[in-house]
Write a structure and sequence with these properties.
It comes from Penicillium egyptiacum. The chain is mainly beta. It is about 5% helix and about 40% strand. The protein has two domains: about 240 residues, Oxidoreductase, molybdopterin-binding domain (Sulfite Oxidase, Chain A, domain 2, Alpha-Beta Complex), CATH 3.90.420.10; about 100 residues, Immunoglobulin-like, CATH 2.60.40.650. The strands form eight sheets. It has a six-stranded mixed β-sheet with strand order 1-7-6-17-10-13. Strands 8, 9, 14, 15 and 16 form a five-stranded antiparallel β-sheet that branches. It is elongated and about 80 Å long.
Length: about 375
Amino acid sequence: MMADVGLPPIQFSYGGDDISDSERNALVDIQPKGFFIRPPPEPHELCEDLTSDADLFQTIHMGTAVVDASRWKLVLNGLVERPFSINLTQLRQMPFKSVTSFHECYGSPLTPPTKNVWRIGNVTWTGVPLLYLLSIARPHPRLGLFVWSDGLDSGIFAGVSADRYQKDLPIEKALTPEVLVAYEMNGQPLNKKRGGPVRLVVPGWFGTNSTKWLSRLSVQETRAQGVFTTTFYNELDPISLEGVRTRAVWEVQPNSMIVRPRPQEIFRCSSYIEGWGRAWGADEIVQVEIRLDNGDSWSEASVARRRQFEWQLFSFRVLIPQAGSYYIQARATDRRGARQPLMGSRNHVPTVQILAQSCPPTADTGEEVT
């Protein structure tokens, strides 16, 4: 399944810990308790390539875990040959990498995914690749199909009680080099509201999969049975002919937002507008199209290539022919051909309304000035 990278030059605690939940002793409190959400700024205010902590949205389901970093440890067990646990100092001594990735919230798991919330940011995570940790543990080559991740938070979400936040990843995703057991964001240690001291980071997938306050990783044969995989964060599979089959909220579908022009921005008629925005998805965005006023034709924007999993800059130019109100839309398509829907979906195309003023007539001919 993977190459054995050998033992790191630190002393591990091998074996056991399957039942005791001793890693949860690092939890000091849940404070504040309960659901919390902080939306990001509006798209036209997200102008920086890298999103600061102050501008990045926050979603906390059951409350903020307060963790004693000196007692924190990570257990990796389950269907593995060498289960082990490590503390924070040992984790920081391991080979690390940084990955710049968009970070997107799926939105409420309690309502149909018919609205685009544009709850998005772009940050650089630093930590140990999950692939490295799994290469030490050696998952069972046939039975180890999923990696469960446990957070230290617990409580009640939407009237449902859970003793921990638990998610899962298919082993194929877990073994990709971008998935991190992260301890820094934008070069700073993770604070408690960001899931510190350590969280899982799954670039290209919705933020719900990036378990905060990470304490355990467990290789298993089946999907996790916690409420955040069974009750919440499943959606109708669009390719289901019966319209009843669901799929896990994992990969991010193509999405985009227009940063410039700003909503209700005023321009002169008979002029070109220079605009730009961001596009992102689990796969690289290879095309962004622009149209004016719900017209039949789309024009192609210029799209920056993706290096890691960061959001991609696109830029465009459109002509405003005369005075009036206009709507600009952008539509992203990824390398597999998946395209943003026009409406009725959590990733439907963005629309920005702008205004064009009448051009004053010239003194000599009465012609409009351009």
